[in-house]
Request: fold
Amino acid sequence: MTAERLKTKAEQGYAAQFSELESRSSSQDWVQRLREDAMSEFNAIGLPHRRVEEWKYTDLRARIGEVYGPAGDAAALSGEKLATLLGPLGDIDAVRLVLVNGVLDEALSDLAALSGSCEILPLHKAVDDAPDWVRGMLTTVNPPRPADATVALNQAFLANGVALRTRMAAPGRLEKPIMIVHVTGGESERPTSAMTRNLLAIGDGVEATVVEAHVQLGTMPSQVNAVTETMLGERASLQHIKAQTEGAETTHLSTWMTRLGAQASYRAFQFSTGGALSRNQIFVAFAGEGASSHLNGAVMARGGQHNDTTMVVDHAVPGCESREFYKLVLDDAARGIVQCKVNVHRDAQKSDGHQAAHAMLLSEAAEFDSKPELEIFADDVVCGHGSTSGQVDEEFLFYLRSRGIPEPQARALLISAFTGEAIAKVDDEAVRGAFQTMAEAWLADEGA
Amino acid sequence: MAAVQETVEHVKEMEVDKYKYGFETDIETVKAPKGLNEDIVRFISDKKGEPQWMLDWRLEAYRRWLTMDEPKWSRVHYPKIDFQDLYYYAAPKSTEGPKSLDEVDPELLETYAKLGIPLKEQEILAGVRKQDEPSQLDDVESGNSGYGKVAIDAVFDSVSVVTTFKKELAKAGVIFCPISEAVKEHPDLVKKYLSTVVPTSDNYYATLNSAVFSDGSFVYIPEGVRCPMELSTYFRINEKQTGQFERTLIIADKGSYVSYLEGCTAPMRDENQLHAAVVELVALDDAEIKYSTVQNWYPGDKEGKGGVYNFVTKRGDCRGRNSKISWTQVETGSAITWKYPSCILRGDNSVGEFYSIAISNGYQQVDSGTKMIHLGKNTSSRIISKGIAAGRSDNTYRGLVSAHRKATGARNFTACDSLLIGDQCGAHTIPYIEAKNSQATFEHEATTSKISDDQLFYCQARGMNEEEAVALIVNGFVRDVIQKLPMEFMAETQRLIGISLEGSVG
Reply:
């Protein structure tokens, strides 16, 4: 680098934290190199701002004023406490992996239940032992291009999280959903940060459901940066579900990077109601023909919440199918953003892509920005996108009221029907039920 | 597929191999020295006999331009332009103040004849040239009134050489003249409206244009007047290595209506030519402006060499209540098109429309679209964009629809469809949709496809041969936009589009 960029306070904060981490780091050389390269990459690009096209609507430089310190040693978390944090999600019959500020809490996790079907390693152990599959996956799955600052940061602080690999023969099926619970924060009186990296390797012909739940302990603001790298083998099938319900002062930066083998099926769903600022990124790359990716989601935001969903789907090989379907309900001065870019490469013939984002604005001050982008270089493709934004339909409202339903209930009914269309796309019945309950609770909160 | 192959060949014939308008007219020209500096700006201003305020305005823009960087965000690639290697002013020598058509250099008129423009004004111009009678104009005026008449402000390189129908327009109170003349004769109007829609500092090329614009058209339609004829301008870039910097300003006063046509062809050149025009439209209360463009500049040869760089800033301001601005464009030419005719919907109940056909072939690059900025209440806008990419071209639609906080009841409908012909081209869609008002309703849809086998099969099952079926489908694909074109442009457009309509229109 020739000219040193002027660093913001937050960028300096990250640099300082990095040098602290470096001094007590003892992991292998290759990991250290990964971290250092990532940190210099971050130093070169800095926190994204609105002149960075991918971050046009989410100005991190302005929104992240200072960097919070890591949470340190995890506070002991009781099973009851966890159940409260999870709410309706706690009722889902799943095998749990609990990460408290990124650190795998073995007591709260059902490691034994998974021992037969999966190999599970806390990330720090995974990088120290460095089995080939871990080494092969880290950062090679589907890194965003151009380099993304939040992913680079996550890489620079690579230490916590969990690495999971199925070890079943094809065709295999994981009976119960695996729920990775990300608990952020603690009982202390200071704001904290957590950087988490998860690796999911779903073997050839294996069918699994993974739910990632992001919840918050305590009320202090926190900064979450969570990256999940997912690799699907041939004909593998994964339902990848996320629920994000952190506190109203939390900054949530999340990236899913997924690579699909031939004829694999990836069905993602993100349900997001929490956080002051949330940025949910999904990068999907098709590596084998005949695969399909469905990215669906529902966002409910109010107050001053800022919720950004950014997706990039890369049709690098022929014959793949992609769908994106998002519904947003925005109240008060909330701002919702959906950006999705579908790339179809020159020889990716027979690609089929369709994306849709629909927003319902409940108040004058709410804002919805959408950028459905298509970049197509092959001629035998069917691609399309749709985006709408509007309000509760007065005629529907009148119809319901004329049938004796009071206005608030009628309104709630219409909103829940609106988000319901997205939530219906969750395959797992228990998860779908929990999301419906959460959506209703959100609506009941209205005016409170 | 044979029919598709044939279509591709049609395109090649039409657009690349046989660029019909690649001739050069040998008229002596007066040129400013190469390069750009304050002296050139002064030279241009002096040549035009401009008042001091205009020169100051230009100089300010020039100084601003020096501080700006070329925009890099568009999806187009080209070698860096050396702005010091261009001529910024070229005027045909024989055109110093022609008062009537018969004073016009015959060669110039021949140029128009060669263009083969199926427009009324071409006949008129040819007629004048043949008969050499000064009474010709009057005959036309008295014998052929109302619909179908076109007044032309011909722009040959940089100077507006002749303006027809001035008298009749004057009767209606319409001012239609070169902008250089307007600066002198209607300074109040120019001062009041110039650069109020596209500020001098708006973007790199608009600022450059402000500094060096050579000529263009000025239109003022007074209150309550429906312009008695369609107004038209032909732009041609003729002189080697001359950038053409047109400036058009159209003002429709309260309750008035005007339809304006702009057509472009340029002779074949090896080196890239720069065209950086600025068009400003102002519609006051209840006024309507319809602005149609057919752009067919030289797209470069088979290897992608040469061709026009078309970097244009076009913007309309619906300033008054119930005003309407409608852009229709057919973009078939230019090596690079970088153009976003936009509407600022400021007045309550104002309407903005954008209808576009963009065809790219060979190595052409198109990055075009529109902006609809809803500021007033109950404003509505409609965007219909049809992109057809063939050969090795890239065709990008880039658009912004935004509703301001106060734009209650804003409505937008956007449909942008792309059709790909061949597997070496690219079609891209980059829409930005920003709703800051809950009472705004935005609908956006886009599709990208090739001609589907199902559609072909369906048509063929009904007795059409493959070629007819392809023609029908492509015809249907661009129909929404073709219908919005003024009658006068239909014939030329259909010829230019060849690709899609050949065979289906006979």
